[in-house]
Task: structure prediction
Amino acid sequence: MTSLFQSDPAVLVLEDGTRHVGRAYGALGTTLGEVVFATGMTGYQETLTDPSYAGQIVLQTAPHIGNTGMNDEDPESRRIWVSGYIVRDPSRVVSNWRADGSLDDALVNDGVVGISGIDTRAVTRHIRAAGSMRGGIFSGDAASLDAERQLEIVREAPQMAGQNLSAQVSVDAAQVTTATGERIGNLAVLDLGVKQATIDNLAARGFDVHVLPQDVTIDGIRAIDPVAVFYSNGPGDPAASGDHVELLRGVLDDGLPFFGICFGNQLLGRALGLGTFKLPFGHRGINQPVLDKATGRVEITAHNHGFAVDAPIEGAFDSPHGYGRIEVSHVGLNDNVVEGLRALDIPAFSVQYHPEAAAGPHDANYLFDRFRDLVVATLETKKNA
Result:
């Protein structure tokens, strides 16, 4: 591993002209994306390999990153997805019996340009005040580019709003994981950036998990004779995913039970006829408090979302698209953002956060049981009809 003080210079440039000079970390070069901060003090490997972070330069608010290295057991997907990585103090050594390599080497191998040695607290406070914004990391030869040219490059990058990134992260062909619990039936999972922990949790509840490409049609879903449909987390703007919304309306019209998480929550909202909007700086990290309105319980949950559903927090309301009564089931306690939806007249619900929560917390893992119970009850009703 290269020492921080031996590495090449690097600079982080935000679209408002803010600059932070540090040292290169990971691959050398130029990378662009939306600069966001993640508040988890642990689980950086799971964060880096979460496809929801595609298109984003992730800043870790925890100051010391990399001490446990990287291993071959914990990746949430097939590669690191972040567009760039910002840390204050990268560990100079790897000290964990499970480690198979260093974080620095993993970033280099996957071509992820990063920066270290900057005041990450200052950047976080700036984003919290001004909102998430486009940024660029320039290292190696790119670090010596004229400052005005670097800023121009950042401002030429696309905004996150309006981007559809599903095709970048989804599988190309169907992949099947057989049930590890008592089998219920086939589950169609639309891969918008699904994580391995999600697949494992669904298989443990008795589903043969069919992970399907994001461009699958309603006929492609029907072809596997599913007992239910699941929409995964993923990157991008839900307003730019009209095809996935129309597909979901076909699922709901077929009467199939549905569960969506994160991006899937936003797409359920749009399928029901609700709007979505971009949050100032989003929710990212493993310490977000959410109220389950049905139980009154406050859960500490894992998040990664920059968009949210626009819906009334209190009381039931009618779906503008004719799917009956809807209610907000979960609410974020930091800012009253909608964190879950429940349909009262059809078998469908969703949450904005990640109940699989690798590397934790696991307060919301019960939602997979809630989904299993919904599917079993729906199958029983159809059997007796």
Summary: DSSP finds ten helices and 20 strands in the chain. The chain has two domains: 4-156, 166-384.
